[in-house]
């Protein structure tokens, strides 16, 4: 028996190996079927959860990306708004400079009729418009040639006169101040009167005879008498005139031609009243006779 086993030992081992392989293959096939059933069961239960988690992660990533996109857009919008604000500011400055240039150009054109050696264009830097005073401060002073008593006006009319001067600035007494009085006449009829400030927007008319022809809307101009203001400068228009049989002088009001509440630039000019010429011998003889 042992001889027989030894003789066919290799064949017996090969046969046993084949049988063992067949058994393993059979077991693997049955296990594969069981695993397929288990996987399908697991997929049925887990797949919806997995999809939900995947979608949630995708949404979070999308929101994350959108958030940073919005942050970038917000930063860009902020930068654009800042740039727009700067451009609007610069544009407004240019508009103001253009308007100022036009106003100054008009004043310069007006000043050609005056003594250009003593004519200065000044800007208004401060106001003192209270119930007790009507003055303003201009940005020109002694170093610019401004002197006490110089006349201040615009292309529309008389503003006032310089009453205080420093090195860099000057104070102007407006014609609406109660301390101001301008000798004037009605341009239409040449009737004489005095324009007196009342610390209000309008001025009072003094010493206008009830016999003189003056009515609402008449233009008043400076007469040049008194040696304070030159002749022929517009002062303003009459807004009211009241007369009566028992009155010697009419009562009236006037509004300045220059808008004193909105002045930005003014003309400052020197006015020297004409000097009296010495009498000729012929005139002396006439006076003696």
List the helices and strands and how they pair.
Elements: H1 2-7, H2 9-111, E1 119-129, E2 134-138, E3 151-153, E4 158-165, E5 170-174, E6 181-186, E7 192-197, E8 203-209, E9 219-222, E10 234-242, E11 249-256, E12 265-269, H3 281-288
Antiparallel strand pairs: 1-2, 1-12, 2-5, 3-4, 3-12, 4-5, 6-7, 6-9, 7-8, 8-11, 9-10, 10-11
CATH topology of the largest domain: Thrombin, subunit H
Which architecture of the largest domain does the CATH hierarchy give at level 2?
Answer: Beta Barrel
How large is the radius of gyration?
Answer: 52 Å
Write out the CATH superfamily name of the largest domain.
Rod shape-determining protein MreC, domain 1
Strand content is: 25-35%
Number of helices: 3
Strand order of the largest sheet: 1-2-5-4-3-12
Q: Would you give an account of this structure?
A:
With 289 residues, the chain is α+β, with helices and mostly antiparallel strands. 40% of the residues lie in helices and 27% in strands. The protein has helices at 2-7, 9-111, 281-288, and strands at residues 119-129, 134-138, 151-153, 158-165, 170-174, 181-186, 192-197, 203-209, 219-222, 234-242, 249-256, 265-269. Strands 1-2-5-4-3-12 form a 6-stranded antiparallel beta barrel. It has a 6-stranded antiparallel β-barrel with strand order 6-7-8-11-10-9. A hairpin with a 4-residue loop joins strand 1 and strand 2 (134-138). The longest helix has 103 residues, at 9-111. It is rod-shaped, with a radius of gyration of 52 Å.
């Amino acid at each position: 028996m042992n001889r027989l086993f030894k003789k066919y030992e290799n064949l017996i081992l090969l046969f046993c190996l084949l049988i063992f392989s067949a058994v393993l293959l059979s077991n693997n096939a049955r296990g594969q079927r069981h695993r397929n059933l288990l996987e399908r069961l697991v997929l049925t239960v887990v797949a919806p959860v997995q999809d939900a988690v995947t979608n949630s992660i995708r949404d979070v990533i999308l929101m994350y990306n959108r958030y940073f996109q919005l942050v970038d857009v917000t930063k860009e919008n902020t930068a654009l708004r800042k740039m727009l604000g700067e451009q609007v500011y610069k544009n407004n400055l240019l508009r103001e400079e253009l308007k100022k240039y036009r106003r100054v150009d008009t004043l310069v054109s007006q000043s050609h009729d005056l003594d250009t050696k003593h004519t200065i264009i000044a800007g208004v830097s401060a106001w003192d418009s209270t119930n007790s005073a009507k003055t303003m401060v201009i940005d020109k002073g002694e170093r610019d040639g401004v002197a006490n008593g110089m006349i201040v006006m615009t292309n529309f009319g008389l503003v006032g006169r310089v009453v205080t001067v420093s090195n860099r600035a000057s104070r102007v007494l407006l014609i609406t101040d109660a301390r101001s009085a301008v000798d004037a006449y009605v341009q239409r009829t040449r009737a004489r009167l005095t324009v007196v400030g009342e610390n209000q927007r309008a001025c009072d008319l003094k010493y206008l005879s009830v016999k003189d022809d003056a009515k609402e809307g008449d233009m008043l101009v400076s007469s040049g008498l008194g040696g304070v203001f030159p002749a022929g400068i517009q002062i303003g228009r009459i807004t009211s005139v009241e007369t009566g049989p028992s009155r010697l002088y009419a009562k009236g009001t006037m509004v300045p031609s220059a808008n004193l509440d909105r002045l930005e630039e003014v003309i400052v000019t020197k006015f020297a009243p004409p000097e009296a010429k010495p009498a000729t011998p012929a005139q002396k003889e006439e006076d003696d006779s």
